[in-house]
Amino acid sequence: MEEAIAMLKTTRPTFYRWLRTGKVKGMKVGRQWRFYKADIERFLRGQEPKIELPTDIGPLLEGLTQRLKDAGGEDPSAPDDHPVLRTVAVLIALGVRMRASDIHVEPYEKTAVARLRVDGVLHKVAEFDLRLLKPIADQAKRMANVDVHERRLPQDGRIGIALRQAGGTADLDLRVSFLPAIMGEAITVRILRRDEAALSLDRIGYAATDRDRLQRAIESPWGLVVIAGPTGCGKSTVLYACLNHLVRPAVKCMSAEDPVEYMIPGVVQVGINEQIGLTFERVVRSFLRSDPDVMLIGELRNPACLMVALQAALTGHLVMSTLHSDSAAGTLKRMVDMEAPPFVIGDATRLVSAQRLVRCLCRKCSVPTEPPADQLDRAGQLARDGGLDFSALGQGFRKPIGCGECGQTGYRSRTLIAEMLEITPEIAQALRRGAGVDELRAIAVGQGMTTMAADGVRRAAEGQTTLDEVFRVLSLR
What average pLDDT does the segment 126-150 reach? Predict the structure, then answer.
């Protein structure tokens, strides 16, 4: 090691950093490191470490390249790049071209599988020799700037790239997770496109009445606004859109996020790091000493965080956050179950929104249809129970067919179905007396709320999606 450091004319800490992130190739023998002089010379020439392949990666690279070509994309790598680097680059480009939100590479007994999550549904794009997983993971680790030699513990990294495409350049922020599984490391890549982020309330796709309710709540000088739903339902996107709506020179906005997904000019953004004690509640308590007008809390993760959010709302701040819950009324009960006093919830909370994402029908290949009678009956009951007149919705139902534009799925992109529960004096009073979820929902519907199920039925009746898709997402079968 001393000889290698001398050749590179660097310090030991810098050398260790290069070694950890894979810029310099080495072998650990016992407690010592060994290096080939040729590898050090490659680094001095500005070349990547030489990657030894246990088997031919050509078929995998050719298969992914052909799928990218079939999808209308082009290989972003250079012909003289190493095959492993080209494979990773083509897989990322394929994910972007197919509008995937995530790329999953997973090891099984004899093979590894690459899948893309498109519009919430996974699609297999490659199956390859398990022996190729290690060099692919090593390349991804180098790109994500994490420890190449750590294979026993989970690691998270980040890749920022500008991907060259036919229509221009895509500005990508990739969040990469490495998980040690029995047969090798599983890799998950979250794809975030800054240039296509729907950070505007007008682009979210709310019904007009729901958008008005949300806008009225976030434009209030104080109070708590909660966006609820499961993982991957667009909660963070809605919070960013709300924050973007409020940012202006006269308003001080601060956010605590885990992690920070998009940079918003004019907002003081703090990334949570629980390993060093930088928790949501600790950051928010610090925010209160910074005189903010608006605070975004990425998640009400525990009772302590919920209470500090409610206290901040009661003391004259607008607070926006998320909570994992299945409905708007269920969110209020969840807050009670997290040991928050019902009277504090009723006094501090302005609005609770619950939402899901449903796939939109492809505009090019969907055709009109008449759903089965039993499905229409079920949809009518859901609409009526959810505050809508089913007979007034129209009958613009359509069904998916599949074409090249949508990858033969019949669906392209997703939209949001939601319910907005405003905290009125009647809702607050019901909370104080311990009302259940059904009673809270009934009061809200009586005061004008449209439930998620009814909103989904409305969108299906307008031809945006299908009843099958709404029932699938809401588990109504």
Answer: 93
What's the maximum distance between 2 C-alpha atoms anywhere in the chain? 82
Residue 99 lies in a domain: yes
In whole angstroms, give the CA distance from residue 423 to residue 151: 49
- Domain CATH number, residue 444: 3.40.50.300
Contact between residue 256 and residue 272 where contact means Cβ atoms under 8 Å apart? yes
Domain of 93? Answer: 58-195
| Same structural domain, 307 and 428 | yes
Write the pLDDT tens digit of every residue in 284-339: 999 999 999 999 999 999 999 999 999 999 999 999 999 999 999 999 999 999 99
- pLDDT at site 168: 67
- How does 34-68 read in b/e, with b if 16+ C-beta sit within 10 Å? ebeeebbebbeeeebbebeeeeebeebbebbbebb
Q: Residue 54: is the preceding peptide bond cis (ω within 30°)? A: no
For 369, list phi and psi in degrees, rounded to 5: -155, 165
The answer to whether the CB of 152 falls within 8 A of the CB of 140 is no
Q: Single out the residue in 195, 230, 252 at which a domain terminates.
A: 195
Residue matched to tokens 């392949």: 53
- Provide the whole-model pTM: 0.84
Note whether residue 84 is domain-resident: yes
- 225 part of a folded domain: yes
49 assigned to some structural domain:
no
Tally of CA atoms within 13 A in the half-sphere of 192 that contains its CB: 19
Residue 151 sits in the same domain as residue 9: no
One-letter identity of residue 436? G
Query: Tokens at residue 114, please?
Result: 């690459």
pLDDT, position 167? 64
